[in-house]
Structure formats: C-alpha cells, structure tokens
Amino acid sequence: MVDSSTVLYGQTLAYTFYCLAILSLMGWFAFKITRKGKEGKIKNTLFYSYVTLLIVLGVSLHIVTYNTIPWTPIDLNRTEINPDKVFNITVEKHHFILPQEKLTIACHDKVLFNVTSNDLTYGFGLFRQDNSMVFQMQVVPGHKNDILWQFDKSGVYTIRSTEYSGPEGVNMIVKDAVVVSCDQASTINHQ
Amino acid sequence: MYFIQTLIKGEDGLFKPNTLTSMQKLTLRFVVVGLFYYAFAVIEGMIMRIYEIQPIPFIESKQFFAIMTAHPLVGIFGSTYSIVFGAFLFLVPFLMKKPLWSIKLGNWTLWLIAIGTFVFWSAGFLTHYAPLYTLYWPLPADFTQFSVIGGTFFIIGIAVVMLGTVFFVINIFKTLTYTPEGWEKQPSGAILKSALGITAVANLFRRKKKDQHVSLPVAAIAQGTVDVAFNSAIILFTGILILIYMVAALLGFDLKSTAIDALLYKNWFWWGLDLVADGLVLIFVAGTWYLLATLITGKKLYMENVARIALLIELVVSWTVWSHHLLSDQAQPNILKIVSGEMVTAFELITQGLAFFITLYTLWSARPLKMTNPLKFLLGGLLGFALAVPAGIMQADIGLNRILHNTQWVIGPHVHVAVLVGLAMTLYSAIYFLFPILTNGAKLYSQKLANFHFWAQLAGGVGMGAFMGMAGLHGMLRRSLYVNGEFNTYMILAALCGALLLFGFLAFFFNIVMSVGLNGVLGIFMPSKLKTKDLLPPSQ
Fold it and tell me: Of B290, B349, B407, B418, which sits 20 to 30 A from A166 (CA to CA)?
C-alpha cells in the first residue's frame, strides 16, 4: 500500500503550486486594475467555463483520491475484509491499554486496530520516528472505532492520542508501541 | 505638543462625537468592542505561539488549554460578531433607506455580547475551564478535570452572548419587514422572499421576472442571519444540556454522562457550528465583497442574479456539510461521509469561487481604480479565501482526512488564513470604507500606518498559516503540546509571522485612536445629543 508520506508529499507539491499561482494572479490583478485597460465586456463563455471547471475540480478530487489513495476503499469497505490480525485496545483515564507491550505486525498483513473508549473522546494515531503521521482516527465512547491498515515496510511506530481530552491527555503517548517487520517469510506469505 | 493634542482630540480635531447620531454611535461602539476583543485574541494567540516553541514557566498547561478554549470564542463572538453585527445594523437601514427597527435592541445586543464574552473569558482565565470550543461530550461535564463553578459561569457567558445574538436576528428581520410610522405599508412578504433568495430562484422559471425588493448585499445579510438564528438555537440548547449536568453536580447529583450519545452530540454540535463556519461567514463575506465592489467602482455587480442564487445555494449547503468534521469518526455512516462530508462540501468551492470571480470582474470592469485602503484590503480578503477554501476542500476528502485531521494543517492554512486574511481583511476593508461616513468626515491619522497594517496583516496571516501547515504536513497535531522542540523551526517562523499580525493590529489601533482621539473614543459611548432615528445627521 502506498505510504501516507508519499500522498502527503504529492499534496504538498500540488498545494504549493496552487498557492504560488494564486498569489501571482492576485499580484498581477492588483497591478493591472490601477492601470487603464482595453474596453470590452468579458465573454459569458469564460464565466461559464470557469464554473464548469470548479464543478469538475470539486467532483473529480474525490473520484481521483478514491482510485489513487489505497486506504480509502479499504476504509469504506473494511467490514467486508477479513483482517490477518486484530488488536483490541482500550482507552480509559487518559491511558492506552494495549493487549501486549509491543504490537508486532508482519509486512503486508491487514491489521485491524479496534479501539474502545471507556470514558472520553480520544484519538488513535500512529507516528513514525520523525514524528510524521501514518494514520489517525477518532475514538468516540459508546461506539466501535476500528481502522484497517496494511504496512509495506519495516518500521517502529509510536501511538499517540490525536484528539484533545483535557490537559491530562497531552501525555497520551506510547513510544515505539508498534513494530512492523518485513522479513523474508512475511513477504513470501503474501506473494 | 502636536502629538499630545492629536492623541486627545484626533487628527486635525475633525472628529466631533457630539455631531454623531445614535446609529453612528451604536455602530462605532460595536467596532470599539470588536477591536478590543480582537486585541484579546491576538495577545492570547501570541502567548500560544510562544508556548508552542517553549512552554512558558509561569503558565501551566491547564492555563494554556484554557487560553486555547477562549481564543476562538473571543475571536468569533467577542470580536467578529461585534464588528459584523454593528456594521449590518447600520448597513441594512442604510441600503433599505429606512430606520433601524430598534436602536435600543441594538444596544442590548452590543452589551450582551460584550458582557457575555467577558464572563466566559474570565471563567476560563480564573478557573482554567478548558473543554475547547469543540466541547466534545462528555469533556464539558468532566468535573475530575474542570471546575463545576468555572464551567457554569463559562456556559452562562456563552448563553448571554447568544441572547444578544437572538436580539440581532430579530432586529434585522424586523427592520426588513416593518413599516415605519407614517410610511406606506411595506410589502413584507415580497421583501422577505427577495431577501431570502426565493424571488431570484423563482425568476429562473418565470418569463416575466419579478423585481427584487432588496439589494444583493441586504439579501446576503438576511440569508446569513438565518444561519445566525439556527446557530444560536443550537448553542443555547447545547449550553442548557451542559448546564443541567453542572447544576446537578453542584447539587451533589452525578448524572450519567453515557445518557448522551457522544457521536450524536458531535453531529449535532458540528451541524450547528458549520452554520457559522460554512454558512454565515461565507454568506456575509460574499455579500460584503459585492457591496464593496459596487461602492468602490460605482458599477453594477457582474452576473447579479447568479450571485443571488449562489447565496441561497450556499445557505442550503451550509445545512448539509457538517460530516466533513466526522470523516475520521469510524462509527459515522459512510453515506454521510461521502454525500455530506465530500460531495456537498465540494459545492463550497463553486459558491465561493463564483463570489470570487464576480467580485474580481466587477472591479476589473471599472479600471483604472485608485488603490485605496478599502480596495487593497478587499483584494487581501479575496486572496485569503482563495488560499483557505481549497485547503479546506482537500481535508474534506476521506483519504486525505486520514492523514490531515487534527493536524496543524487544518488550523493553519485553512482556519487561520480564512479568518485572519480572508475574513479579517474583508472586515478591515469595510471599516476603512465606513470610517469617514460613521465619523462625519474624520481624517485618518497616517496612511503609512495603514499601509504597514495591510502588509503586516497579509504577510503575517499567510506566513503563519503556511508555517503551521508545513508543521502539520510533517505530523504536528493541533490541540496538543510538544515539549521537546520537535517542530520548533516551523513554530518559530509561525511565531514571527504572528508577531507581524500583532504589530499590524497595533499600528491600526494606534492609527484609529490618533484619528478620533481619546476624547472621541470616550465620546462614542456617551448618549447622542441628536434626537433622531436617522443614520446620519442632516448635514451629511
């Protein structure tokens, strides 16, 4: 599965390019409107083409992301997918209660993180050693909160609550709690 | 000597509060209160900016989160509501050419918002009540973390603000539809249909188009006020719910927090709050852009009927987009995530995109234009939303939300650029435009300070949003603390930009005080000597 850092990199490029374009457009506009220009009405075709472009952009974004971001269809259809491993995690009084000290995962396994809150609304996120985010979800009390994920490379990840639950929630960090191992055996199993 | 004289009497002694009507004073009072709370929000913001680099020793983390709780509420209710309500209570009568229905009710709105904001701010400051503005259930009623008394006063403060807001709603709609004494009976039904965009939509299907009874900016104000009304009802209801738990706790009863479904509460809350963020803000801003564009150029708005229809679409869209806040809530039904969270939310790209184009073209058609303060701030406001809306559309995608939700991306490039560049610069444009009208010709003290204000607001707002966004893309969460300097490079740069925003505001504040003088600021709060319901004195 494409790593989330790759998706973020693509988004960074796209948004940066867009920002530079719009800053340039507005700078040019501000310069030009203080100067006399050619008389003449704008063609309505330009206006309606612009509206069509906005509609296409708005709709196509989600179609494109559905077809290119692999965890989107997995997330929407996760009840129909059999996970290779399930971790049942409880959160209570600002503590994560893990089923074991280290959650070990083999590469390419489909892993279901099933997180239950016994009191407040929390978050559940996995972070790399450089603090970048792999994924996150909200953990709402009284409801099922599960996420299916597939890891394609070795790594050690920290669990952190990604939702504010009061000042005491700031330290809800379980360092190096998830270990993903891509040894030869796990690679062969999934081929 | 000149400096002291100007500080006391204003630039050239031109501002004479004795010549102001009750309506001018009411509007200026709203502006003073709004700027007072903007100062609060900016200072609180700078404290948080510094704290995110390095926790400040004499401020505990509980206080930090209490500041974070108060900050958006002071900014939205204390500052923005004050400035916007003040402007609209003046503009609706101005554009309808009829008196405001009740100046007394307008003053009630002013003082209820001012006092209510101070009450909830104080409760947070003194007791560190800190469930954040999101109030995710059952955190507001978590008395192991928060003081019950503090929470009670916090909620009472919010309720007082909402009462003032309800009075504003009543005043606006009564002003639209009432018949002033001695006037010919007003066609209130037709006025309301025009104001709510119904006539514009119906005209699409009519061969013989009906005339509009209200101008486009008044229609924007009316439709945005519908969302103001709904939002105040939801906030009041939510406040009463939380208050029940607090009063029970004070009386020694421990009500089960599980009696309230946390996910349902979250849906309800975000439905209500999006009436502000995706409803009234966008509608009011679009209406203000249209008004400023027509006033600056003296020309008719391009594609006015399309603009009217787009406003009504935006109003309806604002009722249906709330699920974009719940894309990472796994128990939220998929159909709501896809339809409400993604598809309908994408409509905002279209409605705001239309407002952007229509405003720009109207300005373009009138060139050459002089780059006045209202025009440059209007362009800044347009740029702000052009940057912030696509950032919001990106995070309102199921796939991208998985890696963006609750990161600094959301609060940086989206929220703060929208608020500090998009919204604030639009409001400043209106303030600079209305300043000579509201003050009967007072002179701005310094154009250099106004120029500095513009560039500091623009660079500070865009820069701060950008560096927060970069931190978010690298994994920095919002609503959290990092004590080991993990994101310090970005946070230092964001703080420098935040400082620019602070200096820009101080420049503006100083400029305004020197323009009207301290006597003038005090004089605004004295009763008017002119016994008239008219907006402007007879000589204007």
Answer: B418
